[in-house]
UniProtKB/TrEMBL annotation:
Coiled coil: none annotated. This is Sodium/glutamate symporter. InterPro entries: GltS. Keywords: Amino-acid transport, Cell inner membrane, Cell membrane, Ion transport, Membrane, Sodium, Sodium transport, Symport, Transmembrane, Transmembrane helix, Transport. The lineage of its organism: Bacteria, Pseudomonadati, Pseudomonadota, Gammaproteobacteria, Moraxellales. It comes from Acinetobacter gerneri DSM 14967 = CIP 107464 = MTCC 9824. It comes from the Bacteria. The chain crosses the membrane at residues 7-25, 40-58, 70-88, 94-113, 125-146, 158-185, 220-242, 283-306, 312-332, 344-367, 379-403. It is a multi-pass membrane protein. The gene is gltS. GO terms for molecular function: glutamate:sodium symporter activity. NCBIfam families: gltS (TIGR00210). The keyword Transmembrane applies. GO terms for cellular component: plasma membrane.
Length: 406
């Protein structure tokens, strides 16, 4: 029996999932110590409950996909609307260096996947599916490339395999980021865990705040600011949907979320630099953080864990090795190249997020770490831009190049 949940029901359940996650993180020391994000904790509990209901009672639910898509687009739009060219300059050399780290890892990830697939007697392209297609690319990339690999390269079940692998990555990406950062911070004595009093006294500065910094702090906004900000979000999403339709089948075809992010960047800088109108960043940050939390809760809530149960042994081996490789790469390569300091440890947690899961997971990871150990302005400048925009371009180029040889 399958129940269909409408948009309002989906939001209600997602909020309950977030509250469960918040309760468990506050009550269970393990989750706090290892900086596991609240949406990941609550989402995992919900996904396990859904698995039990499906496995033993044949009960499942489908949630409203449109509201989840809308929240995803709001999240990426908020990144774009926060991308002032003045602030982007702050990323500077560090952003470029981090992009090199990420690009190299995409190649490493595919080498590991394809190499292990070959050793285990599988088609190397299956290793590519259990590589950057799903782990760096996520569910959207898995669906897009899965259909191509099925129709043009004869890889049967590529879409199902891709969705299952992306599901695994989304879960693991949200689990390993915090522990990796904690290990680095403790080993190198980079920061001390904040006390409850210091967390409550921490006040975000009114200027020079990167997107998604200080997610738990109060931001004073008015109804007028909220309406104006919602108007900018709606404009960007409208343009994104329009450009997606225009670009379908063309050389400039891009996913809708990329157009949403790009529209946000263009709109923000036209308003700010041409019309000289000050953008109210606090409202953008509130809507961005709210959509991030709800989207991640819905994504985990919608996971069908029984797809993972259908993965063959060799594929589980590949995924586990990929997890280990990412943790080692983030902990020793990304961390060292980015400066071996506290910012580098937070960046390593973010890399774990989108290296195995998705940009929302990456941002949830760095929020969990900074909530425990203090702010990292550099991480909040670099991770959203790299994870939401540049990584998809790099990944697409690498995948396309590899497939040309097969």
């Amino acid at each position: 029996m399958t129940f269909s949940i409408d948009a309002f029901g989906t939001i209600v359940i997602a909020v309950v999932v977030l509250l469960i996650g918040r309760f468990l993180v506050n009550k269970i020391k393990f989750f706090r110590n290892y900086n596991i994000p609240e949406p990941v904790v609550g989402g995992l509990v919900a996904a396990i409950c859904a698995y039990i209901l499906y496995k033993f009672f044949n009960i499942s639910a489908t949630f409203n996909a449109e509201i989840q898509k809308a929240l995803m687009l709001m999240f990426f739009t908020s990144i774009g609307l926060s991308a002032s060219f003045v602030k982007l300059k702050e990323g500077g050399k560090a952003l470029f260096v981090f992009l090199i780290c990420v690009a190299v890892f995409v190649i490493v990830q595919n080498a590991v996947g394809m190499g292990l697939a070959t050793l285990l007697g599988l088609d190397p392209l299956i290793g590519l599916i259990v590589g950057s297609i799903t782990l760096t690319g996520g569910h959207g990339t898995a669906g897009a490339w899965g259909s191509i690999l099925e129709s043009q390269h004869g890889i049967k079940g590529a879409i199902v395999l891709g969705m299952a692998s992306a599901t695994f990555g989304l879960i693991i990406g949200g689990i390993i980021g915090g522990p990796v950062a904690k290990f680095l911070i403790k080993k190198h004595h980079l920061a001390e865990r904040l006390t409850h009093d210091s967390q409550s006294d921490e006040t975000p500065p009114t200027t020079d705040v990167a997107p998604f910094e200080y997610p738990t702090k109060t931001r004073l906004i008015t109804a007028s600011n909220a309406v104006t900000t919602l108007g900018m979000f709606a404009t960007c999403i409208f343009v994104a949907n329009w450009m997606t339709e225009i670009g379908r089948g063309q050389w400039f075809e891009l996913p809708t979320f990329v157009w949403a992010l790009a529209s946000g960047v263009v709109l923000r800088n036209i308003i700010e630099n041409i019309f000289k109108i000050k953008i109210f960043d606090r409202a953008i940050d509130v809507f961005g953080n709210a959509s991030l939390s709800l989207y991640l809760a819905m994504a985990l809530l919608s996971l069908q864990l029984w797809l993972l149960a259908d993965l063959a042994g060799p594929l589980i081996i590949i995924l586990l090795v990929q997890t280990l490789v990412l943790a080692l790469y983030a902990g020793f390569v990304t961390f060292k190249i980015m400066g071996s300091n506290y910012d580098a440890a937070v960046l390593a947690a973010g890399h774990c997020g989108f290296g195995m899961g998705a940009t929302p997971t990456a941002i949830a990871n760095i929020q969990a770490v900074t909530n425990s150990y203090g702010p990292s302005h550099k991480a909040f400048l670099i991770i959203p831009l790299c994870g939401a925009f540049f990584i998809d371009i790099i990944n697409a180029v690498v995948i396309q190049t590899i497939i040309k040889f097969f």
